[in-house]
Write a structure and sequence with these properties.
Layout: H1 2-20, H2 24-29, E1 33-42, E2 45-53, E3 59-65, E4 83-90, E5 107-109, E6 115-124, E7 127-134, E8 140-145, E9 149-156, E10 162-170, H3 171-176, E11 182-189, H4 194-203, H5 208-212, E12 215-216, E13 222-231, E14 234-241, H6 253-261, E15 268-272
Parallel strand pairs: 14-15
Antiparallel strand pairs: 1-2, 2-9, 3-4, 4-7, 5-6, 6-7, 8-9, 10-11, 10-12, 13-14
């Protein structure tokens, strides 16, 4: 009888323990909600801020990774930058009960010395993560602030930068046929790799403020570039990913060419498709691949 009473007590306690532990869906429903992402440069560092409604996420981390992958798909998430940080929050949500994103664009660009892009990579079962694209891999410091709840990442910027120009499509001019169809914006890059930095920032697309003014990046299905070489006044660059004009008279070539020609070492620009082909590979003339013809 004593053993039966003991077993009953154990079962009762186990039942109470089960009631005390809320289900995962309940935890997710009460998790902090991300409401804003912002970034700015301060003397010596770029600051990235994630602001939440409610308490701070119980678990938060940031680390350098070679590649950022999607939380659900496991596929690589395209992010512009030589270095990439994976920032992870749990428990936290980036959407409301109706599935609407609560913090604005899930992919955003910044014109800061080191910080280039912030891209959402996961928002599932109260696990929220982002890939952060950086121009350089530098030491960083993560800390929290309250009232309101914020997770802050400061990335050091000990290097010198110079301003270059990136040329994006001005959708308002293009719609009305007003030349030139591109508009230049400033970007900070390191002097030792200014042309590479300019192209890197070009493929990161306009900032939110620039998009509000009608600027767009026409990628022509390219996801990036490689093998940039400048020799004898000729800049050669190969597109990666895809390549197609889509029948348009405006392509990524109209953005790459003026971006590279701003440098005194470049008089002609030859753009190659992902397979390494261009229409005029030799000679002192500009060249595009067949896939960028209208």
């Amino acid at each position: 009888m004593h053993h039966l009473r003991l077993a009953a007590c154990v079962l009762a306690l186990a039942g109470l323990g089960g009631l005390a532990a809320p289900p995962a869906t309940a935890l997710a429903a009460t998790a902090p909600i991300l409401t804003e992402i912002r970034a700015a440069h301060h003397p010596g560092y770029d600051r990235l801020v994630f602001q939440f409604r409610g308490s701070l996420p119980a678990d938060r981390s940031a680390r350098y990774v070679s590649q950022v992958t999607g939380g659900g798909s496991g596929l690589p998430v395209p992010i512009v930058g030589r270095a990439k940080l994976l920032v992870r929050f749990s428990l936290a949500n980036g959407h409301d009960a109706n599935g609407h994103v609560t913090y604005g664009p899930t992919r955003r660009t910044y014109a800061l010395p080191d910080l280039i892009q912030v891209v959402n990579s996961s928002d599932f079962e109260a696990v929220l993560s982002f890939g952060v694209g950086l121009a350089h891999r530098e030491p960083f410091h993560m800390f929290v602030l309250t009232q309101p709840s914020r997770v802050v990442i400061d990335v050091r910027t000990p290097f010198r930068t110079v301003q270059v120009r990136d040329y994006f499509l001005d959708s308002h001019r293009f719609a009305t046929g007003q030349q030139p169809f591109t508009r230049a914006v400033g970007r900070p890059v390191t002097p030792s790799a200014a042309a590479f930095g300019a192209l890197q920032r070009l493929f990161a697309a306009p900032t939110q403020a620039e998009r509000a003014r009608g600027l767009r990046f026409v990628a022509s299905q390219a996801t990036g570039f490689k093998n940039l070489q400048i020799r004898g006044g000729v800049a050669r660059v190969r597109l990666t990913g895809g390549c197609s004009s889509g029948g348009s008279t405006f392509t990524v070539a109209q953005e790459i060419t003026p971006t590279l020609k701003q440098f005194s070492s470049v008089r002609w620009v030859k753009i190659y498709d992902p397979a390494g082909h261009t229409e005029r590979p030799t000679g002192r003339t500009d060249s595009i691949p067949v896939c960028l013809e209208p």
